[in-house]
Amino acid sequence: MAAAKRKATTTKTPEQTAAKRAAGARRAPPPAGATKKPRVFEFSFARVYPLYVQKAERKGRTKTEVDEVIAWLTGYRGESLQRVLDADIDLETFFADAPRMNPNAELITGVVCGVRVEDVTDPLMQKIRYLDKLVDELAKGKELTRILRG
Fold first, then answer.
1. How far apart are CA 88 and CA 70, in angstroms?
2. Are 56 and 68 in contact (CB under 8 A)?
3. 44-88 per-position pLDDT tens digit
4. Which of 61, 103, 110, 142 is most enclosed, with most CB atoms within 10 A?
5. Residue 25 included in any domain
């Protein structure tokens, strides 16, 4: 009786395994010149923003300081920042439509998530890393005037 309840296991022959692999290898390659964008580009800024605020607040900093860091980097202040949050735009659009990217952003150096921000080659990814680095510095207790490279 117990043998009847056991699930029958099937063993695949090496030929079956090779055929399955070969079938998977027949997928069409991506179109020439097409590169896959990182998923983070599609994240909503409204989804990421509360995480920045939580990180700062856990370390005794304020939402106002996070807003100041965002304003310094991107130019979004007060109502314009709130409109962006309400519009639920993605990070790619957030940075593309930024009122004024700070020219001193290139002074931001260091490591975020194991990646050196000054070595990031994709301009959009570098901007995202810049913002991550500024919020990290804020959360680590660094003086706001030093964070803003001022």
1. 16
2. no
3. 999 999 999 999 999 999 999 999 999 999 999 999 999 999 998
4. 61
5. no
120 DSSP 8-state letter: -
> pLDDT, tens digit, for every residue of 21-56?
555 545 555 565 556 777 878 889 999 999 999 999
Of 142, 136, 81, give the one whose Cα is nearest residue 111.
Answer: 136
Task: Give the residues across from 90 on adjacent strands.
Answer: 44
Please give the pLDDT value at position 36. Answer: 75
- CATH for 121: 1.10.8.290
User: How far apart, in Å, are the Cα atoms of 49 and each of 21, 28, 70, 121?
Assistant: 43, 38, 10, 24
**The token pair that represents 112 in the structure block:** 């975020």
| Residue 113 pLDDT grade (very low, low, confident, very high; cuts 50, 70, 90) | confident
Distance CA 118, CA 105 (A): 10
Residue 24 lies in a domain: no
Q: What is the DSSP letter of 115?
A: E
User: Taking 90 as the threshold, does the pLDDT of residue 117 lie above it?
Assistant: yes
